[in-house]
Structure formats: C-alpha cells, structure tokens
Design goal:
Blueprint (H helix, E strand, L loop, with lengths): L1 E2 L5 E2 L1 H29 L2 H5 L7 H8 L3 H13 L4 E3 L4 E3 L2 H8 L8 H12 L1 H10 L10 H23 L6 H7 L2 E5 L5 H9 L4 E6 L2 H13 L6 E5 L10 E7 L8 H11 E12 L11 H19 L13 H10 L4 E7 L3 E7 L1
Parallel strand pairs: 5-6, 5-8, 6-7, 8-9
Antiparallel strand pairs: 1-2, 3-4, 9-11, 10-11
Helix pairs in contact: 1-6, 3-4, 6-8, 8-10, 12-14
The protein binds S-adenosylmethionine.
The site of S-adenosylmethionine (SAM) has 22 residues, from α8 and α10.
C-alpha cells in the first residue's frame, strides 16, 4: 500500500496499471489526429495493396515530406495500424486495416469516425465554458469536421442496413416506396440517407430538411451530383416546422435526441403523416439504464453526447437534452407524448436501434 499526500490508501500496482492504461489512451487520443492526417494526405490509400513501403517510397508516392511520414509510420506501427518489418525497414498496411481505412463502401469504414472525434475535440474548449453555465452549443456552431465527419461516419452504416434491413422491418413501407410514396427525411444533415433512399425508390419523392442551412446546401449539392436531384428537395427548417403534409413515411436518423424539443417535433410528425403513415426513428444503440451502456460503444456515445448532442439540445427551446444514450423508454415517452399510439423496436445493430411509430 502507498499513502498519498491526501492520506488516501492506494494499491501501488493498481495505480500503475491505471497509469499505463492512460498512456495507451493518450496514444489513442493523439492517433485521432494521425488517422485524419493519413486520410487527408492519402497515406493509407497509397499503402493499401502496395506491399511493404519505406518512408521515402510512401512520401514519394504521396508528395509528402519523408521525415513526417517516417514519424507518422512509427506511430501507426506502435498502434498496430500498420505492420513494421525491422529487416527491410518497410511498413505494410494489413488488408483488414486497408478496408477499414480506405474503402468508403465498407460498413467498417472508419475515417469519418475519427474526423467527427477530431472536430469534437477542436470545439471542446467551448463546451468546457458552456458546462460552467449550462448554456448550449448548437450543431451549426461546430467546425466543419463535425458536420462532414458525421456524414462520413454514418453513411457506411446506412449503406449496409437501411435498404437491406431497416426499411424492410417496417410494416408495409417498402411496398409503398416501390409504388410511389411521399417521404420526409427530417434532421437529414448532408442528406446521405435521403439520397440513398431516393436512388433505391425512383417512384417516390423525398423531402429532406434540417435546421442547419450549411448542411442543407451540401445535401442539395450532393443529391444533384448523385443524380437524385429531381426526386429530392431540401429545405432549411426545424423539425417542429418542416413543410408539407400527407407523408407516407417520415424518417429521423440519429437526430431526435439532438433536438431541444423532441416532443414538439413528434407532434409535428404526427400532424404531417397520413393516418396510415409511418415514422422511422434511428437512434444510437443504448440500454435504458446507465450500467447497460458502460461498454466501449456506450463510452464513445456518452463522450460524443457530452461534446455534441447534449449541448446541441440545450442550445434550443425546451432543451430536453435526451443525450445520445437516451434508451428506448425515453424515446417511447417522447413519441407517445407527440400523439402516437403505436411504438415498437424493429431492428438493431451494435451501433443503432430502429423504432417504428404509427399514429
Ligand atoms: C448527428 S447529426 C445527423 C445528421 C443526419 N441525419 C445523418 O444521419 O447523417 C444531427 C442532425 O440533427 C440536426 N438537428 C438538430 N436539431 C434539429 C432540429 N431541432 N430540427 C432539425 N434538425 C435538427 C442537426 O443540424 C444535424 O444535422
């Protein structure tokens, strides 16, 4: 036993275990910036499938400085992101890391996850200030890495699950979309989900909305570039006041918990849906009790929630601040307070849970 200057009895071995765990975590925290660096400079893409490369060869292929690249590679090797061969002095990107770090079509694609984490950290001094007073900090106030990182983080999951699992899990919705339905994608951000649905269901029309005008401009541009410009329209509007009525389907992807007044949003969805319409709510995976979320996924989500979701909600009217780990019971309360009589969980992945609400 060791006695500290505060006369707290501590187990010296456990203390050092915790210190070494923290060393690992500081390395991992700094790696967030290094992954974004590798993504931006094209280092992972140049390594993918290239076989063993020396720092000079990698720098040459990417038009970067050999000295920086050598240091970056050593940090990547120490974290098992690349493999180092001491005999040749060369570095290889293993195939699994190559997929996760360079293939935007893979559900395992990671650079967006790191980009939104980096953006969250860049803005964290503002959250420290806000935590003193309880003030909010709006989604629209964040650096661009938060907005773009969010899109790049979520899109692979939507590509993998939205058409294959989530929409088919809703009662009768795919048949309506195939025939021709009117859909509102609320809190759509850069419109990744709106565009994916518009490409899959050419007889349907999609109205994306978000309160952040910068995101809506990007969504419009990306829909046009994806050839989905004609069947999509985008407007800057809060969830409690988007335009139109008679929707067959309203979707909300990872945004209900970010809203200040999700009950007002739920009421508006109720008022704009057809009587036989469906509201699909995609939320971060979470259990109802804190102890159910004390795991790596819950840790990441509680951390994003502290830096992004909770301040976003607190910045808006009502400021209910559900948090990213709200859990099914609280989402159900919001939905039923909005006038819905039917609510059920229809699908889940390790990262998301999907609910169906009907009037
Ligand atoms: C985590 S992002 C998700 C964006 C998008 N749905 C996606 O899956 O990529 C949350 C989004 O909710 C939007 N948002 C927050 N509060 C809102 C509100 N009251 N009304 C409409 N959109 C809101 C933000 O602007 C942001 O685009």
């Amino acid at each position: 036993m060791t006695t500290t200057n505060q006369a707290i009895q501590v187990d010296g071995d456990k203390l050092m275990q915790f210190v070494f765990r923290a060393v690992d975590e500081v390395g991992a925290t700094l790696n967030t910036a290094l992954v974004v660096m590798g993504d931006r400079l094209g280092l992972y893409r140049a390594l993918a499938g290239a076989g063993p490369l020396s720092p000079a060869e990698l720098a040459d292929r990417t038009g970067t400085s050999e000295r920086y690249v050598r240091e970056w590679l050593n940090a990547q090797a120490a974290g098992d992101y690349v493999a180092y061969d001491p005999d040749s002095g060369r570095y290889t990107l293993p195939p699994e890391q190559a997929v996760a770090l360079t293939d935007p079509d893979s559900p395992a694609y990671l650079p967006g996850f790191f980009q939104i984490a980096l953006g969250s950290m860049l803005d964290s001094p503002k959250i420290v200030d806000a935590a003193r007073t309880g003030a909010g900090f709006g989604w629209h106030e964040h650096v661009h890495d938060v907005h773009e990182g969010c899109e790049r983080f979520f899109r692979p999951g939507y590509n993998a699950h939205l058409l294959a699992d989530w929409l088919p899990a809703l009662d009768g919705v795919v048949a309506k979309l195939e025939r021709g339905a009117l859909v509102a994608d609320v809190g759509c951000g850069h419109g990744a989900s709106t565009i994916l649905m518009a490409q899959a269901f050419p007889n349907s029309t999609f109205a994306g909305s978000d309160y952040h005008d910068g995101s809506i401009e990007t969504a419009r541009r990306q829909a046009k570039a994806a050839g989905a410009g004609e069947r999509t329209r985008f407007e800057t509007a809060p969830a409690a006041a988007y335009s139109g009525t008679g929707y067959d389907l309203v979707t909300m992807f990872d945004c209900l918990h970010d809203m200040g007044d999700p009950v007002a949003a739920a009421r508006h969805v109720h008022g704009t849906l057809k009587s036989d319409g469906t509201w699909m709510i995609v939320e971060p995976y979470a259990g109802d009790r804190v102890e159910e979320n004390l795991n790596p996924v819950g840790r990441a989500y509680y951390s994003f929630s502290t830096l992004l979701c909770t301040p976003a909600s607190l910045s808006q009217d009502a400021g209910l601040a559900l948090g990213a780990q709200a859990g099914e019971a609280r989402i159900r309360d919001v939905v039923t307070a909005g006038g819905f009589t039917h609510f059920r969980r229809v699908a889940e992945t390790p990262f998301n849970v999907v609910f169906e609400a009907r009037p």
